[in-house]
Amino acid sequence: MKRWMGCVVLAAAPAACAQQFEVASIRLCAGANAGKSSVRGGQNSSPDRVTMNCQPLRNFIRSAYITNGRFDPLDRTPIEGGPGWIDSDRYQITAKAEGTPGQEAMRGPMLRSLLEDRFKLKVHRATREVPVYALTVAKNGPKLKAFQEGSCAVLDLSNGPALPAKPIPICGFAMRKRNGSNVTWEVHGGSLDDLARGLGEDLDRVVINQSGIAGKFDFHFEFAPDQSTAGLGAWLAGASPGGPADPASGASIFTAIQEQLGLKLESAKGPREFLVIDSVERPTEN
């Protein structure tokens, strides 16, 4: 264990002191543990201790700088730069804080300060114009189902994905299921922003909500996966065959969204934020 002090230096803000871990241990995972990782890392969810097991540094950077300690699997802000070992080496971080700052603070700003101190990490943010899909309203208007209260469970993301007491969907999160050669896709209790973020996970571009529609809805549509939905491979094995959609099996995702939701995906240009690693070093020994 190592006691350490320091200040958080935000990329786009003046330096500011933040609460520090009282003690923190960083260990390189070796042997069988080197190939194991967990999104949240460990089962410790006490308000003054955090354990993140055998993860690449990129995961810690995402938690500290992008999701700010929240569990948010839909945020895929790209991280650019850095040496290859930020993905190949895996580390276990165990830390204790003074008081009870909670998991979100420890996995966000406090982890950020730890990475800057022990990994000598320096980053900056950049925004560039990139190809995107704009989510708009189709010619004949939206065909959206109003959100049904109780159809999904609100998830407290601050301490990880605690499952609801009964098997119902999580509000705002996209679910994908195989239906023969097609895929059914749905979001319960989600906004159009939630829909756009989920679609951006599966498509070959980020999706920006430009529908102008507020409120929450239950979205459901079915389509035939093709080369544009390569991201489905992360959710459903074999869901993206890599060729054009087969009209005999179902509509493409673009046609399905227009016909079944009354919305439209159009090619456009839009801003996307990147987190760029300026410099980083392997951590100091404990």
Structural features:
single chain, 286 residues, alpha+beta, 2 domains, 4-stranded mixed β-sheet, 4-stranded antiparallel β-sheet, 17% helix, disordered N terminus
Structure write-up:
By secondary structure, this protein is of the alpha+beta class. The chain folds into 2 domains: 21-128 and 273-279, no CATH class; 142-261, no CATH class. It is built from 6 helices and 11 strands. It has helices at 57-66, 85-88, 103-107, 109-118, 192-202, 253-261, and strands spanning 21-28, 49-56, 79-80, 90-97, 122-137, 145-146, 174-179, 182-190, 206-209, 217-223, 263-279. The strands form 3 sheets. Strands 3-11-5-9 form a 4-stranded mixed sheet. Strand 7 (174-179) and strand 8 form a beta hairpin. Helix 1 (57-66) crosses helix 4 (109-118). The chain is elongated. Residues 1-16, 37-43 and 240-248 have low confidence and may be disordered.
